[in-house]
Amino acid sequence: MVAIGLQAVLRIGTIRDLREEFALARVRDIRFIPLSCPLPQPYGMAKSLANARQTTLVVVETDVGVTGIGEAWGMPAVNLAYLPLVKDYLVGTHVCDVELVFARIIARHYHFGVQNQLMGAISGIDMAAKDALGQVVGLPVCQLIGGRASESVPVYASGGYITESPDEDFAPQIEAMAAAGHGAVKIKIGLGPDSDELRVKTARRILGDNVDIMVDINSNYTLDLAKASIARLAPYQIAWVEEPLTPQDIDGYELLQRASPVPIATGEALYTVFDFKRLTDRHAVDVLQPDLSLCGGFWQGRRIADLGEANHLRLSPHVWGSGIGLAAGVHFVASRSPYPHGQNAPWPTLVEYDVGENPLREALLSEPLIAVDGRIAVPTAPGLGISLDWDAVKRFMQ
């Protein structure tokens, strides 16, 4: 008979405890908490300005006492309307199995389609379930979904918003991003080719030649306008033109991608890998931009990233919500390899880092994720590696 040392016995006991806890990690309850904060000054995009920032906080409680958090994009009231449906499917499900349930939901309720708030609700639940699972097994989310490719990820500052006084308010926004030392910056355009060139010319003058500038039209143009604008902007060395056309204009994207001297990026308004496949099948895009809070969470985000990799396209997740969505984007990028690049990535995968007025981005978290020298450290704690300031949550509850 082989003697077993005390340390081995304790270790076996610990493993058994972990196995038992893991086996019991089932969804006990799901809560949606609507959050909103008014803005002192409206800002936004060419299509419209926002008077407030809002999101839906998703809380997934498990039978082992572990709670995960996520973020669902869109109008909280609409997300709340979907909650009874998704809870009916998910309560009692193991946190490892939620993706199978999501697939069952969209297959059974195919009349709903996927371009709706049902996917937003699923996205937030998937984030929260991965957060809970990471806490149960003691691993950061990035290692659950692919690995930890780096200790920090690069970001681009998203600002230069359109306001009620766009001519007066634009330059100060760019000056603030320049002072912060961001190496890549995205600005809003889309008010017309003349305005586009003026805004880009101003940004280039303030930022200098060594900062990458991306522009975002927010789907406000038709094909002819997009071509006219890009022709004016190309001499300023633009890194990409984002959402030049409406998401439905796949034909237009294909024609524009062929003609444009500037890379075309899009995807923040697309849901599931099926939407993105319509673009990649037509070779109509250069950079894929899934938003994990609406595209289907990490569940669909990984499939979209794999689709991009299979088609040799770049990836850059869209983030325009709270600090929870930012944390998800950081883990997502940290989990991806730089394929087809090796050690040297000429254009690394960037996370969008919104620098507009938004208390939900920083005040919501006990320790906000802050970009330093153009990078955000990947959290090392289990799950998403973030914790909520519940006093702040109460302040922002609708």
TrEMBL record:
The UniProt record lists the Mandelate racemase/muconate lactonizing enzyme C-terminal domain at 167-263
What SMART domains has UniProt attached to this entry?
A: MR_MLE
Q: Is Isomerase one of the keywords? A: yes
CDD domains in UniProt? MR_like
Task: Name a biological process GO annotation.
Answer: amino acid catabolic process
Matching PROSITE patterns:
MR_MLE_1, MR_MLE_2
Q: Which UniProt keywords apply?
A: Isomerase, Lyase
GO MF terms listed in the record are: isomerase activity; lyase activity; magnesium ion binding
Respond yes or no to whether keyword Isomerase is given for this record.
yes
**Which InterPro entries is this protein grouped with?**
DgoD-like, Enolase-like_C_sf, Enolase-like_N, Enolase_C-like, Mandel_Rmase/mucon_lact_enz_CS, Mandelate_racemase_C, Mandelate_racemase_N_dom
Recorded hits in Gene3D superfamilies, A to Z, give: Enolase-like C-terminal domain (3.20.20.120), Enolase-like, N-terminal domain (3.30.390.10)
Q: What SUPFAM superfamilies does the annotation carry?
A: Enolase C-terminal domain-like, Enolase N-terminal domain-like
Q: What is a single Pfam family found in this protein's UniProt entry?
A: MR_MLE_C
Protein name, UniProt field: D-galactarolactone cycloisomerase
